[in-house]
Amino acid sequence: MPEAIADALQTQGLWFLAVGAFLAGVVRGFTGFGTAMVYLPVAAQILGPFEALTTLVVKDLVAPLIHVPRALRDGHPRDVVRLGLGALFAVPLGIWVLSLVHPDVFRWGVSLVALTLLVLLVAGVRYRGELTKAMIYGTGALGGFLAGCVGLPGPPVIMLYMASSLPTSAVRANNMLYLIVADLIILIVLWWSQLLVISALALGMLMIAPYLFGNWIGGRLFDPSAEKLYRLAAYVIIAGSAILGLPIWG
User: Fold this and answer.
1) pLDDT digits (tens, 9 = 90+) for 128-168
2) SS3 166
3) What's the rounded Cα separation, in Å, for the pair 247 and 66?
4) SS3 content of the chain, % helix, strand, coil (to 5)
5) Which position has the higher pLDDT, 155 or 22?
6) What are the C-alpha distances in Å from 59 to residues 32, 37, 51, 148, 213?
7) Which structural domain, as residue segments, surrounds residue 21?
8) Total domains, the chain
9) d(CA 14, CA 157)
10) How many CB atoms lie within 10 A of CB 132?
11) Would you say 48 and 70 are in contact if contact means Cβ atoms under 8 Å apart?
12) Which of 12, 26, 170, 175 is the most exposed, fewest CB within 10 Å of its CB?
C-alpha cells in the first residue's frame, strides 16, 4: 500500500482532485448531500469512470462518519434501511451499464444528471403527499441504478426529501445516512464484479484529508435557520462543477 500511495501522489491533476474533494466535503457537511455532484465532474476530467467512482466511494465512506451520531438522532433510520435495500438490487444493473459505455458518456451523464436535479430544485418542485414505503423502496432503487452508471445515488432521494415537507434537519440526516449506505453497496458490488481499481483505492485515501476538512467546515456552517443560504451555496457549487465537467471543454 505505501507503494500504491507513492504512485498516487504522482497522479497528474492531483491538486485539482483535492480541490474538488474539499468543495464536495463542504457541501456535504452543511447540506448532507452533493458529494458526487461536486466531485465526480472534477474527477472524470482526470480519471477513468471506475477510477473516479472508486476514489469517490473510498473518501465518502470515511469522512462523513463524524456526522453519523447527529444524523441518527435527526433522521428516520427505518426509511434509510428501505432506501438501502432498494439500492442493493439496482446498483449491479447500473454498474453493468457503466461497463458498456465510453468515458465521455460517463462525463455527460454525471454533469447532466446533476444539472437536471439542480433545475428541478431551483424550480421549486415539491411533493406534498405521504411518503409511502413503496415510494421509498422505489426511490432507493432508482438511486442505486444511477449510483452504478453515473456515480450519483443521491438525486432521486434528494428530490424526494428536499421536495417534501419534512424538517430540514431530517432531510439532511436521511440524505447523509443513505449516501453512506449507497457508497458501501457500490464498493461491494465493484469488488464482487472485479471492477474495483486497486490503484484508485490509494488515491481515494489521499482525498480523505481534504474531504474530511471540508466536511468539518461544512458541519460547522450548518444552521437549520439558514436553509435558504445553505441551499443557494450548494446550488452554485454544484452548477459550477457540473458545467466544468462537461466533455465540451476537452
Assistant:
1) 667 788 988 999 999 999 999 988 888 788 778 766 677 77
2) coil
3) 35
4) 80, 0, 20
5) 22
6) 15, 14, 13, 17, 12
7) 2-249
8) 1
9) 31
10) 9
11) no
12) 12
